[in-house]
Specification:
Blueprint (H helix, E strand, L loop, with lengths): L2 H4 L4 H7 L6 E2 L3 E4 L11 E4 L4 E4 L5 E3 L1 H8 L5 H10 L18 E6 L5 H9 L4 H7 L1 E7 L2 E9 L4 E4 L4 E3 L5 E3 L5 E5 L2 H10 L8 E4 L6 H7 L5 E5 L4 H13 L4 E2 L10 H16 L17
Parallel strand pairs: 12-13, 12-14, 14-15
Antiparallel strand pairs: 1-2, 2-3, 3-4, 4-5, 6-7, 7-8, 8-9, 9-10, 11-13
Length: 301
Amino acid sequence: MNAEQANRIPIPDYLASLGIQPTKTYGGYLMYRAPWRDDHRPSMKVDLKKNLWVDYGDSKTGGSLIDLVRKMKPELDVSGVLKELSSFSFQGQKSVDKPEVAGRIQIESIRSIGNNNLLNAYLNERGIDLKLADKFCSEIHFKSNGNTYFGIGHENEKGWSIRNKYWKGCSGQGVTHHRTGSHQVAVFEGIFDMLSYKQLATYSSRQSDLLILNSTANLKRGIEALQGYEKINLFLDNDPAGTDATQKIREEYPYIKDKRWIYSGFKDLNELLVSKLAREKKLANAPEASHVLVRPKRLLP
């Protein structure tokens, strides 16, 4: 491992491996108590996008992960830090890019959503309420190739579909079917599309079964699962793959309703949700916002 590779390791994952958790979570950064001193007021900031840290309580000392390890363990030189990081087993991802989690996935534990600050921050970034996520998902800790990882998982027919900010995969490939006894069903490509649908349809009293393909590779199984429904509403992606899947489903069920017009201009429902929340936040922060009453609108039928 060289310095460039070491500094791609997410700082929050390294700290979590040492049992150090953030005290406050924000959209793009986390706040910690500096572990090298008695820090009553959290003053160490970790920028999630840049993967850098700064300690505002120590003359703005900061830098990369290597700088952080040397600050915590001054007895180590750079080569010593690299040796430690190369042999460390992280409870998280190895890269702020797109780490490869290859090999067979072994589920270690299944927990409720809401206790992992990194996953909470990821859900918040995607505009998903924690209580809603906990209703349909779980916090999954799993092993692959001897390394431990965690992510947001929802169960499918053959295992778990798992994802976090840096990676997505599954322990078994299959569709997820939430049945309520309804004669209509809403179809999605991924879990965040379905969660966004539920978030946007908060003020709708209509009940519908939910079918998540989890991958367009599961389209054949998804088409089979649609048998018997009187109404089929498709909320697939606004891209060639989504168009192709829509056409194939239409060949089997000509009466489907393609709902992508609702989020025209956006790739998917989650992109629409994130944009909507950003506009609402901007409006709420406007000087005249205190004089305006904003009522929620139901965007989905």
